[in-house]
Amino acid sequence: MSTTSDVAMADSTRRRLELTSSRLTRLERMMEIRLVEDRIQELFAQGLVSGTTHTSQGQEAVAVALAAATRPTDYVSCTYRGHGVALALGLTPEVVLGEVLGRQIGCMGGLGGSMHLSDPDVGLLPTFAIVGAGTPVAVGAALQFSVTQCDGVAVSVFGDGATNIGAFHEGLNLAAVWNLPVIFVCENNLYGEYSPIASTTSVTDIATRAQSYAMASEIVDGQDVDAVEATISRAVERARTGGGPTLVEAKTYRYVGHSRSDKATYRPEGELDSWIARDPIELFAKKLAHDNELGGESVQDIQRRQSELIDAAQETVLASPSGSIAQMFENILAPSRH
Amino acid sequence: MRLRMNQAIALAISEEMELDPRVVVFGEDVAVAEGPFKTSEGLLAKFGPDRVRDTPISETAFLGAAVGAAMTGLRPVTEIMFIEFLGVAFDQLVTEAALMHYMSGGRYNVPMLMRASVGSGLGFGCQHSQTLERWMLGTPGLKLAVASGARSAYGLTRAAIRDDNPVVILEPRSLYGQRENVEPGEESIIELGTADILRTGNDVTIVTLGQTVRVGLEAADSAPWSAEVIDLQTLMPWDKETVLHSVARTGHLVLVEENQYSGGWGTDIASYVVSEAFSDLHAPVLRITAPDVPVPYGPELEQRFLPSSAYVQDQVGALLSTKKTPPPWWEEFL
Ligand SMILES: Cc1ncc(C[n+]2csc(CCOP(=O)(O)OP(=O)(O)O)c2C)c(N)n1
Ligand SMILES: [Mg+2]
């Protein structure tokens, strides 16, 4: 990659750009996300973390694909289920795990916790713990690109359940009316909290909702990282060239409950297994093995290497102090301009 | 009987539903899943899907529907899972529900209850941990109560469902799992607008609310001075008589609030007592609150946010001995 400021480049930006270099890095990043989130659940189980967390095991392909299809200078708004997107965009495992564990190494200095991740170096807006809130905000980021005549795009990532809230509909309409460069990415994992989509949502395919706003839309297999990347890339291309917004619906699944305390007993028997049979990481690993793109390593070797990196990251995080009392009083208002 | 606060709430709703077929319940995951905090356990099984409904994630729609249903004959009980989510539907509460009676010249009533979980202490971070009474304070047309445990949750909930006005009950989330003695029945219904004197004393009146009730009681229990601890229970309208009466005896008023200092519920009470009973006071009114910061994540920091009983004891002790308000703990950080 060619850049004049390699020295000053943030870790997250470097990691983001790596993602575009090869499909192997994408596989590694998907494994990393899975490992970090498994680790987060273990740490919760051990009582090392307070509060709650929402993990995204099973949805890694969407996160990595959207990161690969966009630039670090684009903007992304995401939800409380944001570890995967944050890591995909380039935030390091240290910064993400650190925030989840309330350590100063975390992206909010440990004062935010699992639901509050962000990094301007890769355009990740602070993740939104209020359902729907990030969608109009992404529209605003796209407005900025439009007003300043940049070819940047904004991406709003949200769940199926979020498409029942006013902010979603208002956001889509405004983006369409103003023809803004924004891509709405719905991770349709079939549940909003404990409710199956059919009990709360009048359509089966979220993508059909784009028609109300005369907006382009596409449905994609969310377990196929190449397919998601291709779909989002088409939408990004449309947005960058003045073609306006797109609603992308990725059909996917979360293997675990909504949040830490949810055992997900509301799922029909066999549903989870049928999704695990199409695990996005395994599918992609097989594909790369078939295409001879594993760099001479076995999947197990790659997995082991990733796992060691996460071990090291966890150690670094555990050595970082917890957020301090003084930090409670910081970053509330922007510093005054003199 | 010993009940957890969430059980007491479910029981109160259930009893009112039995008595009055117009009472309906809806909110996110309140029916099949019986509530994210299990505050509607058994309701769907007992009353069926017509009266107990899950909603989409559509706070504006279901709060607005509660307003319309209430105006036309039902008595809806709705749940806002975390009080912050009210933000997306605020209009329906403060500009619609609260004003319908007024705007109809008194001809429409809005008998609805909006319950919401509130408060810090469970590690949910800055967008899920506030109490936010202040959003509603001073809104004409609304009643606002705050539960402090199973007993008051039961009594307030039953009263609120019977009230002909829009009532908000805030439920400190960290108390859902805690048990208290509840005697189900009409006698345990708590009239909205009444405070409860939980502990009598002579040196100082400590007014508490929600999560700070326990804090105030603990501080008083081991203190060298004698405190009267009042659970305010209702903020709108609040029980002026009980508070003034107590202050007239003790000469000292301390308000223990979970909210940030600026704009907290205690400001209203402090200003009223100072205006109405200045000559009864032997010292300035002391407000013990959280600092003006968002609720931090991480157990140590979050514990610091909510005033602790040890801190309350120190502050009250300083007030009584110096007759001045001591500086808050956070002064050194400003
Ligand atoms: C306005 C608002 N209402 C309710 C919630 C509580 N809540 C958090 S996540 C969630 C489910 C969201 O489902 P979906 O949009 O499908 O996303 P997923 O969690 O499946 O990724 C709910 C109801 C919230 N955070 N904000
Ligand atoms: Mg979902």
Q: Going by CATH, what is the homologous superfamily of the largest domain in chain B?
A: Thiamin diphosphate (ThDP)-binding fold, Pyr/PP domains
Proportion in β-strands of chain A: 5-15%
Number of domains of chain A: 1
Full CATH superfamily name of chain A: Thiamin diphosphate (ThDP)-binding fold, Pyr/PP domains
Number of domains of chain B: 2
The name of the CATH topology of chain A is Rossmann fold
Please describe the biggest sheet of chain B, giving its number of strands, its sense, and whether it closes into a barrel. 7 strands, mixed
Q: Uncertain spans of chain B, ≥5 residues at pLDDT below 50?
A: none
For the report, how would you describe the main beta sheet of chain A? Answer: 5 strands, parallel
Classify the beta-strand content of chain B into a percent band.
Answer: 15-25%
Share of helical residues of chain A:
40-55%
Number of continuous helical runs of chain B = 10
* Through-space gap between termini of chain B: 47 Å
Subunit organisation of the chains: heterodimer
3D structure, described in words:
The complex is a heterodimer of chains A (338) and B (334). By secondary structure, chain A is an alpha/beta fold. Chain A has one domain (4-322): Thiamin diphosphate (ThDP)-binding fold, Pyr/PP domains (Rossmann fold), CATH 3.40.50.970. Chain A is 42% helix and 9% strand. Chain A is built from 12 helices and 7 strands. In chain A, the strands form 2 sheets. A 5-stranded parallel beta sheet of chain A has the order 1-2-3-7-6, sandwiched between helices. The N and C termini of chain A lie far apart (39 Å). In chain A, 54% of the residues are buried. The model of chain A has no long low-confidence stretch (mean pLDDT 96). By secondary structure, chain B is of the alpha/beta class. Chain B folds into 2 domains: 2-188, Thiamin diphosphate (ThDP)-binding fold, Pyr/PP domains (Rossmann fold, 3-Layer(aba) Sandwich); 196-333, Rossmann fold. Helices cover 36% and strands 20% of the residues of chain B. Chain B contains 10 helices and 14 strands. In chain B, strands 3-2-4-5-7-6-12 form a 7-stranded mixed beta sheet, sandwiched between helices. In chain B, helix 6 crosses helix 10 (309-322). Chain B starts with a strand and ends in a 12-residue tail after the last helix. The model of chain B has no long low-confidence stretch (mean pLDDT 98). At the A-B interface, loops of A face helix 3 and helix 9 of B. Bound molecules: thiamine diphosphate (TPP) and magnesium ion. Magnesium ion is lined by residues 159-161, 189, 191-192 of chain A.
